[in-house]
């Protein structure tokens, strides 16, 4: 799993993860699996939001680099482990859990 560069327009203006971000991180051509990657991003966002606090709006989460990092890592994990057949399930990266724990410790409803 490759680390993503967080995209900033201004000092504190963090952008949500895009299909292009994931494709660049995974070194994929720009026309590869666009709808699949978008579905994985949506799934990853819902997963992290549900793990932290589902009452906080998704747009609030998207302002935090920990959220976007967790979404990117989980999206990459889902993409890279698709179609794997194994007796033991693939384990999601620990960094996802670490980002979720950090988000749980923040006051996101301010």
Compact summary:
This protein is 53% helix and 0% strand.
Descriptive overview:
With 110 residues, the chain is mainly α. The chain is built from five helices and no strands. It is globular, with a radius of gyration of 14 Å.
Itemize the secondary structure elements and their pairings.
Layout: H1 19-26, H2 34-52, H3 58-61, H4 65-80, H5 94-104
Helix pairs in contact: 2-4, 4-5
Low-confidence blocks of residues: none
Average pLDDT, rounded to a whole number, is 87
Number of strands: 0
What is the CA–CA distance across the termini? 33 Å
Global outline: globular
Major sheet description: none
- How much helicity do the residues have? 40-55%
Query: Structural class, judged by helices and strands?
Result: mainly alpha
Rg result = 14 Å
The string of secondary-structure elements, in order, is HHHHH
Q: β content, as a range? A: under 5%
Number of discrete helical segments: 5
Essential attributes:
globular; 5 helices; mainly alpha
């Amino acid at each position: 799993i490759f680390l993503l560069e967080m995209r900033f327009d201004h000092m504190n203006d963090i952008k949500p993860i895009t299909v292009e971000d994931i494709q660049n991180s995974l070194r994929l051509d720009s026309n590869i699996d666009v709808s699949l990657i978008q579905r994985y991003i949506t799934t990853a966002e819902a997963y992290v939001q549900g793990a932290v606090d589902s009452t906080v709006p998704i747009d609030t989460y998207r302002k935090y680099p920990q959220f976007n990092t967790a979404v990117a890592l989980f999206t990459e994990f889902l993409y890279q482990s698709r179609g794997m057949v194994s007796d033991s399930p693939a384990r999601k990266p620990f960094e996802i859990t670490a980002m979720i724990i950090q988000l749980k410790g923040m006051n996101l409803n301010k």
